[in-house]
Amino acid sequence: MDESSSPAAESPAVLRQAGLLEKFHIIRSSISFYNNVIVSASYSSPNPLSPDRLIRALHTVLSAHPSLSVGIQLSEESTGTPSFIRLPSINFNKSEKFIIWESSSTSPGHAKEYKDLLCRLHNTPFANEDLTTLPLWRIGVLKRSYNTPTAHDSETNSEGRIDYEIAFSVHHAIADGLSCAAFHYSLVNALNSVDETSGSEVNWDIYTPPKDLKLLPSMDEVLDFGMGLKTAGKVAGFVGKSILPSFMHKTFWAAGKVPEKLSPTKIDVLTFEPYVLESLIKTLRAKKVSLTAFLTYAVANSLFSIMKTLEKDEFAKIKYVKVSVPMSYRKNAGWDNTVMSDFVGAINWDIAKFKSLEGEVSGMKKLTAELKKESTVTRDSEVGLIALVGDLAGFFKGQVGKDRELTFEVSNLGVLDPGKIGDLKKKEQEKEQENKQEKEGGEGSKTATKESEGWKIEEALFSQSASVPGPAFSVNAVTVNGSMRIVVQWMEGVFKDDVMEALVKSLNSSLPDFSK
């Protein structure tokens, strides 16, 4: 009998109370207004991935990241603060509740099946009744098939390697996008270190977190989110909305009213090959514009273009759009990108309707400067405003039926660390060194061969579920091995599918066109 099912099992140990942003995410999820964050990576290996190998690797990952072994204890009072608890154990015999195994039916159908898997994960909430017994994460594994000259569908790619999409879906209270990347750094390393011939005496079906498990402190414990004159101005602005006549308000268009409940998340995916991204980055550097700032204006440009064509009545209503641009506070706390926690802030940025993307370089430069400035300070940030809200559940529900406050969000995860995912150039160098050693009769070639044939990550996708009171849609980018992939996400019913599909096509052409 495992620890979690024993009648004599002790009550879960409370580790600490949730911080401001963690509480925000917990309450929003507990009322089914938001579900999760996902970073999915394309893994490649010379050998198949067995459940046993994955579970053994997960033991290593769980040991490295305490937040993966916690649950949530909700407060009995609506205005109370939830707490994080130590899960007594994680039972992999019940892994069907948090690990999905699938295989592509055909090679041509893989892309659709991949998107379907991500949507299913995004549309699966962390149920309140499971918060104290199941981990706050899920994994989806999709084995890829390939067309080859000798067979319609093959298990291996042209290099004889087997490919898997491994999606990590997590409660936003314990992880941000960079935390999801940290999970994959740990997992690919653990998969390369697993020895399935040893450890037969270990019960790998049960992972028991250490009794002295400790979480990192919350963001507001280590950073200053105090409120000064700037915050006072924001509060005054919120109050002003309720007392000023409508003609004095800045008119933001955000695709209508906040709905009553969460509808299914839908996604589409864009891929920009290294030569396209290299050319774009070169152009942006010459203009002193960051990639995140450019993406923000490129999305606005595509939105204006498509609404003008497909939704003329709505397009006429647009004067401004309001954009949320997240940023990381890890450096402020002295933590790198290998730890898992929720350390993000965001700025809101107004963009007036414009006619051409090329004419908005000045706005891009201003946003670039603003992001750089705001990422260095936490005082007067948006996170601090959460402290002003006593009843978060009431705050969220109170937005239903009102105008949405955000048009879209652009979140750029950046470049996954090549040294932590199996860098292709590094592998080529190792292969050259191996060949040199073989010719010279040197030692160590076997180690180099093993390393070059191990698990590695080729691509990644970053996405998040729809949010009832949040932006009407979101755009999430991540770059791996020089290739940038973008996930565009929207909630069913907020935008018509044909509008979002047209927006994706417009965005697909505007990025390479800008650098011509």
From TrEMBL:
Q: Where is this region: Disordered?
A: 424-452
Matching InterPro entries? Alcohol_O-acetyltransferase, Atf2/Sli1-like, CAT-like_dom_sf
- Name the Gene3D superfamilies on file: Chloramphenicol acetyltransferase-like domain
Q: Which SUPFAM superfamilies match?
A: CoA-dependent acyltransferases
The protein's GO terms of the molecular function aspect are: N-acetyltransferase activity
Q: Which domain of life is it from?
A: Eukaryota
Which PANTHER family is this protein grouped with? ALCOHOL O-ACETYLTRANSFERASE 1-RELATED (PTHR28037:SF1)
Q: What is this protein called?
A: Alcohol acetyltransferase
Organism from which the protein derives: Arthrobotrys oligospora (strain ATCC 24927 / CBS 115.81 / DSM 1491)
